[in-house]
Amino acid sequence: MISPSVWAGVGLLVVAAGARAGPVWFENDYEGWAAAATAAGGIVQTIDFETLPDGRPSIAGTRITPDFNYTAQGVTFASPVNLPFIEGNVVSTFGLGVDSSPSLDRNWIIADLVQPASAVGVVHPAGTILSIFDEDGNLLGRRLFGVPGPFFFGVISDIAIALSTSDRGGSGEGIGDYSFVAIPDVSTGILLLVGAAAAIARRTYGGTTCKKHNSRSLLLVGRSFCGCAGLLLLTATARAGPVWFENDYEGWAAAVAGPIHTIDFETLPDGSPSVASTPITTEFNYTAQGITFAGPVNDPFIAGNTVTGFGLRVSSSPNLRSRRKPIWDSHGRHNRTRLCRRRVGCSHRGHDF
Known about the structure:
There is one protein chain. The protein has five helices and 13 strands. The protein has helices spanning about 5-20, 30-35, 185-205, 225-235, 250-255; strands spanning about 25, 45, 75-80, 85-90, 95-100, 110-125, 130-135, 140-145, 150-165, 170-175, 180, 300-305, 310-315. The chain starts with a helix and ends in a 40-residue tail after the last strand.
């Protein structure tokens, strides 16, 4: 019989899973993505397009229609303009492509998951924007991955992924492999949460598990499991890490919660029009607008003009040496005398923010 303490641990996991930590992205790290995606016992399933939906060897140019699709393998592929098709050959391998010719309208690949997934991973021949959505069509996350390729782009979400899109912003798109980890039914999901607790606890303790009862079976660990679950709550579920956006303001803006406040430096802190070289000091700063800017050596200053626009800049001239000090002192306390704060991300030698 499963002890009450184990169910208590499971309850902690379920509550922790309810917190919205945001998607975690992986770039060119299939091994890391696969290890994290299967930590709770899930299985990575991959469609490599080397065979057609009916199991025959792939032939370039074969159209993937609503009736002739990879639905039985877990994903239904589509595109907004023309039907997707198999591309490639037996030497370079096969993949899935879309093309809006002859219209040249923007086109992209839609991957509609038969069963919601906790993770998806896609091999792309070049840079693209990978987006994930929930069952209601809400955007869960979007990330721009750079060029050139080929690349593996992976994502793990704490909210079930129902659909993903690959969109490089042109009339064509292509993918090499599509991998995913389907979410099991609720009863299996609870057991996978238990498995996740053990896996992360082992990693947290440097290769050991909770050893209070020295049990080989997780279901017999008892109270020590609650300790593992607590660690999972603090180290895994609640802390998923930051999500980064590069050259994708729209995606970032769509993903953040709450109103966006922007300081464009077109005006000085007092509201007057910006003038190049105006120093931004401790007393004359954008604190009233929500942020205090600083530099580790000299004061920041306004740079630019009315044609190119204004911005904020720092420079250590004529010193040209970094004087950056540790943010934390030797006793682990915050160095409050340092004006350069971690959230500003300041540097030296004329680095633009």
